[in-house]
Every structure is written in structure tokens, then in C-alpha cells.
Amino acid sequence: MTGLRARYLWPGGLVLVCLGLLGLAAGQLVALERQIRVSATENMIWIFGQTQAEALNLALALSGDADPQAIQTRFDLLLSRLTLLEQGPQRRFLEAAGLSEPLSGLRADLLRVDPLAGTPPEVLQAHVTSLIATLRGNASLVMAHDWQTQAARLDRLGHLHRLALAAVIGAAIAGLTLSAILIDREKRLMRARLDRLRSDQLASDLTREREQSENHRQFADLLAHQLRTPLAVIDSAMHRLTRGGKPAPPDLVAEKAAVTREAVARLVHLTDTALLMSRLDSDAITPRLRDHDLRELADAVIADVRRAPPRDSDPSRIVLSQALTPAIARCDPTLTAEILTNLLRNALLYTPPASPIEVELKQTISHVTCRIADHGPGMTPGCLARAFDRFARGEGHGNVPGSGLGLTLARHLARLQGGDVTLAPRAGGGLLATISLPAGNES
Amino acid sequence: MRHTVLRLIMILAIWAAPARAQEVLLTLTGAVTDGRVDITRADLAALPQHGYATSTSVSDGRPRFDGVLMRDLLALAGAKGESVRARALNDYVFDIPISDFHRYDVLAALTMNGAPLTARDKGPVWIVYPRDDHPELADIRYDMRWVWQLVALHVE
Description:
The complex is a heterodimer. By secondary structure, chain A is α+β, with helices and mostly antiparallel strands. Chain A contains twelve helices and seven strands.
């Protein structure tokens, strides 16, 4: 929990810091923008200068022999400037500069000597002269305060500017740190993912290796067991032929030779199967797929089986139903022959001696199938479910020679060619073995 | 000729009852009808009256200004030009582009808060911009165009 909190605390905090600093910078920039605006009020030096100029203009008009109308205009202008000085922003400026005291009441004083009210020009002149002196005495103070205000404003601008800059730099640092943390985290995540993938791979390799080693052990056991019987047969035949010290009669030699050859054939078959299985295990078999007539293949295989049937079986029981059309399948003929041989020998070995074995070819749009139906005892559902497992032997077949690899091999080889081998109970008793292969292009 | 007549009227106006109405407030020169047009208080009163309250750069609060629109005034004088050189009583001059008067409702204000503007304040005519309705007008470049104590306009 604390780890999880720490995991989100740092980046979350950094995001907040980043956003906070950016907000601060934005605030500073807005304040900066406001400060930058120049308003006319800040032009106090000019306003004050204008007031002085109007006072001097009035004094000039009074000293010459200007007509009363001109004097009145000059008077009005000076009065308007004094009015301006007493208005809001200007008044506040003078107050801040400490000048409201010496400059207060100037307008009211001037109104008291209004020429419209009949003030004599000499009185007005004296008043204006003293007004000019007052204004002149304070002009430099106005200027000083104006510049002071401007300088202070520039200072504030500089300060805001530095603050905004610092905030932006801070945000940038926070952002960089944040990205560094995220990149580091991503890297670690990637590494962990890779490690997990590698360990998964290792685990699956190990399981595979174990399975293979177990398979090999079982295979070796089985092979040894299966080798014993033919070897014992050969040994017994040889023993019989050499017993008693005298040459064996020719008919006995012929009989024992036949028995021995049959045993050797079984041994050869066993080693062939073992070799094929081993090649399959190491993926060393690449099927050579061509279009072949499955019917011709089945004929050839049946002929072969008839020539060399398993011991004590009558291969004439195999009946190939006469199909009219050729059944073209895309397959490897050697591998397919191996499958068919396997299924036919099984049918011969595991069914009663006189029961028929029917072979039938069928064609669908996508597949060509060859069905081998027997009238034997069939298989229990449990046996059917495990029939294709390695080294699975049917129940009660202890005395029948077999490796427990035949069906496994058959299915493997069929799947290698894009087909399959399936087993199902036959309607009316017995077993129905089906090999299906992809239909060829010519069909 | 017209000038003389106006002068005569002015002199008469001193004696006559509607004297104030015939007082010449503004003189327009340059690209205007016959090169010179004198605008009297009565001329201004005959134009459509407009008014609004706005803040100013030299006073507090939002005083209400009433008067006529500058564009109406220029139209009355038949002004044709790009800019006007506004001149105040104290010879303050400032050039204002005429486009301002079309873009904004710029007033030639005669009263502030109902009271007539006089030369003792910023009258008789004060150019007033609707400063509060357009943010860009709250700027020194526009504040300087608020010419007060306006007496003459030279159209160029």
C-alpha cells in the first residue's frame, strides 16, 4: 500500500507542482500585461507643464494691452488646467507626491479674482505672478515623483518578469523530472515484461523437455518389451534348429525360417515406427504434397498388407468397395500409405478372425475421406478418448504386439498434410476409422 | 461673403435673445464645403443627439456625456478626407483618423452629467470615445485623441 502510494505520490506531486508553477507564471504575465498599459494620467509632467504654460500665457496677456476677451480666454484656460489638477487621478498623484498641501485651493483662489467678476487687472496680475512661483517651485517635485513612480513601475515589471521566468523554469524542471521518472518506470516495466516472457519461455521449454524425456523413457521401455517377443521367437527357432547335434530336416528349417523372418519383419516394422516417430518429434518431416488418387493408394496399400499380413490374420477380409470416380487428394503418398497401413493392420489385429473389414472412399467438396469399418468389439468411450495419446494401448490387448504409437503417428502424419484421423463407434457394432485429406485441385 | 454674414450675425447675437444659439463653437476647414464651415450651437442642436456614460482617463467614475456624433458633424460640413487635425483653445493639436468616427460612436460632447461643458473645464466641445464599450480604447493612443476645449477641425 505504501509502495503504491509512493508510486503515485511523486509523479502526482510533480504534476501539481508543474501546473501550479505554470498557473503562477500565467498570473504574473496577466499582471505584467496590466502594468505595461500606459494611461494618460501618468503623463503628469506634461499636465503640470501645461498648467505652468497657461499661467505664463495669462501673465503675458495681462502685461501687454490684450483685449479683455483674450484675457478672459486665457483665464478660463488656466482655470481648466487647475480644475484638471484637482480631479481624481491627478489629485491622487499630487497627494502621493506630498504636494496636495501646497497646491490645494489654487483653483478656488483663482476663482476669487475672476475678471468676469470685475477684478482689476493689477490684482489679477499679482495673483498670477504668485501662482507662477508656486507652480515653478513644485514642478521639479512633480517630475521627481513622476519618475519615481515610473521607476517603481519598471521595478515591479522586472519583478513580475523574473517571477514568471522562475515559475516557467521551475515548471520545466518539474516536467523534465516527471518525464524522467515516467521513462525510467516504462523501462523497468519493459524489462519486467521481457523477464516474464523469458521465464515463461524457459518454463515451457522445461515442460517440453520433461515430456520428451518421459516419452523417450516410455518409448525405450516399450521398445525393449516389444523387442523381447520377436527376439525370443528367433532365439527359440535357432535353438530348435541346432538341438540334438544333427542337421534339422528341411521342412523344419523352412518352418523356423518363416517364423524367424516374420519376427524380423516385426522388428523392422518396430524400428521403422520408432524412427518415424523420432523424426516427427524433431520436426524433420516435410510432407511433399501432390495430387494423388487415394483409390490407387488404397489399392496398393491393401495389396502390400495382403502380401505381408500381421501374424495369425487373414488379409482377405479386407474389402474395398468399388467407387466409380477417382478420389483425388492433396497428400504425400508415402505418409498416407503409412497411415492406411497402420489403420488396416490395427483392424486386422483387433477384430475376430472371420469378420469383414470394409474400406470405403468418399469425396466431399473440400475433403477426400477413406473409412475403414470393422465388426470387432469396438472401443469403450474411455478408450476412444485416449486412443490417440502416446503409448495408450487398448484394454485387454496385452498379448497383441503393438507399440501404442500407431494411432498417434497416424494422426500426426494426417495433420501434417492438412487432414486428420478420427475414430468413432460403427453403427451396428465395431469401429469406424476415418482418414480425411484435403481434396486435390484436379477433382 | 458667408463669413461676413456670420460675423454680422455674431455681433447681432450679442444683443439678440437667441445670442447663445448663434455662437460659433467649431470651425471646420480643409476638405469641407467651400473650404470653411462654421458650426453654431444651433447647428449642433439640430443634429441627432447621442449620449452615453463612460470612464475617462482624467477623472473618476463614469460621467454621462451628451452631444452629437463626430461623423454626423463631419457629414454636416461635407467633409471628405482621411483624417482631421483637431485644435484646442490652447493650440493643442492632434491628428485623428476619420475612420475612428465610423468605427466607434465618437461624440462631440457638449454636456457632462447634464451640465454644459465650459472653457473653464473641458468645453465647450470635448471629443469623447466610448472607452468602456471597446477594450482597445482604454489605451494611451486613444486617450490622447480625447481633445478637449475643441475649437477647430482641419479635414485632410
